[in-house]
Amino acid sequence: MADSSALDALVDQALEGSRRAISRLMSVVENGGPEARVALARLYPHTGRAHRIGVTGSPGAGKSTLVTELAKVYRGQGKRVGIVSVDPTSPFSGGALLGDRVRMRDLALDSAVFIRSMATRGSLGGLARATADVVDVLDGAGFDPVLIETVGAGQSEVDIARTADTTIVIELPSAGDEIQAFKAGILEIADVLVVNKADLPGADNAMAALRAMLDLGQAQTVRHHGESVTIAGVSAEAGSEQDWATPLLKTSALRGEGIAELARAVEEHYHYLAESGRRQQYHRARVEEQLRRILRQELLGRLLVRLPEAELAAAVDRVATRQEDPYSAAETLIARVS
Question: What average pLDDT score do residues 5-26 get?
Fold first, then answer.
C-alpha cells in the first residue's frame, strides 16, 4: 500500500465482502510490518462475531475432507464459511504446498466460501504466525463460521486451542494400539472428539479406548481445551451444572457420514460457551496470550536491533566453546542493551 488512505480503502472493501480485497488484506497481515499493524487496528473493532472452529489431528486423519464436508453442512444452512488451512512450508519457495486447497476444490466455485492456505514458515504448534490475524480478516468480512485446519503435526499441535472457540480433534481407527490413544496429549484440547474413517476396521476399538480416557479425565476435572481453568475469579469445578462433557463421535468424511451430527455437537458447544459465560472468559485468556506473544516478539526484535552483531557473535562463541552457559550469556547481552 502506498499510503494509509489506500490501506483504509482496502480494509473498507474487505469489510464489504470484496474477495479481491480480502485476499490482498490477508497478504498484508501475513507479511507483517507497519502496514499489517495499521490494517489490523482498523479491522479489529469489526471482529469477534464468528464461531472459530479448529480442526486438528495427525497427518492422514482426513482433516481436509472433514472440513470440506462440514463447510457443505454450513452452506446448506445459508452461512458464509471461511476456511484457513495451514500447510507445511515448501522447502523451495517458502510458501504453502497448497495440498488442502486442492483437496477442497469442491468448494472453490462457491462465492460464499473463502479458502486461504497458509505456510507455517517455521512456526511450531500446528499454526502459522499470522493465522489468528487471517482469521480476524475473515471474521471482520462477515464469514461465520471460520474453520481452521492445522498442519497435522500430531501431539504437539496444541496452539489451535488458543485460537479457536471450539476444537475438534480427529483420531483414526488404526492410529496404533490403545496405548497410543492414552499417551496422545493432543486429546486434552478436544472439545469434540472424532474417530474419522470409521468405516475401516478398528473403529469400535478406538471408540472404546477413547471413551475410557474421556471418562477418566472427566471424572477428575472439568475441561475446556484440556484445562481446569480459573479466569477472572471464576473456577470451573467438577460437578457443576455447566460442565462440558466432550462428545465422542464416529464419522466417515469421505462418505459424508456423521457430519451432520458433528455439526450439531459443535453448535451445542458454542451454545454452552455462550450460555455459561465462558466464551468471554476464554476470549480474555486468548487475548492475554496474544498480547504476551506480541510482547515477546517486539521486545526480542528491539533488543536485537540495539545489540551489536559483534557482541552477539562473541557470546555465541563463548557458549559454543563452553566458556559460558547460555543463560549467563543472555543475561550479559540483556544488561548490555538495557
Answer: 94
- Average model confidence (pLDDT) across the chain: 81
What pLDDT does residue 39 have? 92
HEC letters along the chain: CCCHHHHHHHHHHHHCCCHHHHHHHHHHHHHCCHHHHHHHHHHHHHCCCCCEEEEEECCCCCHHHHHHHHHHHHHHCCCCEEEEEEECECCCCCCECCHHHHHCHHHCCCCCEEEEEEECCCCCCCCCCCHHHHHHHHHHCCCCCEEEECCCCCCCCCHHHHCCCEEEEEECCCCCCHHHHHHCHHHHHCCEEEECCCCCCCHHHHHHHHHHHHHHHHHHCCCECCECCEECCEECCCCCCCCCCCCEEECECCCCECHHHHHHHHHHHHHHHHHHCHHHHHHHHHHHHHHHHHHHHHHHHHHHHHCCHHHHHHHHHHHHCCCCCHHHHHHHHHHHHC
Look at the domain 47-276 and name its fold: Rossmann fold (3.40.50)
What is the model's pLDDT at position 98? 52
Confidence check: pLDDT of 32 > 90:
no
At residue 262, does pLDDT exceed 50? yes
| CA–CA–CA angle 229, 231, 234 (5° rounding) | 85
CA distance 202 to 184: 18
pLDDT digits (tens, 9 = 90+) for 278-318: 888 888 888 888 888 889 888 998 898 999 999 999 999 99
Segments making up each domain of the chain, as ranges: 1-46, 47-276, 293-337
Residue type, 258: G
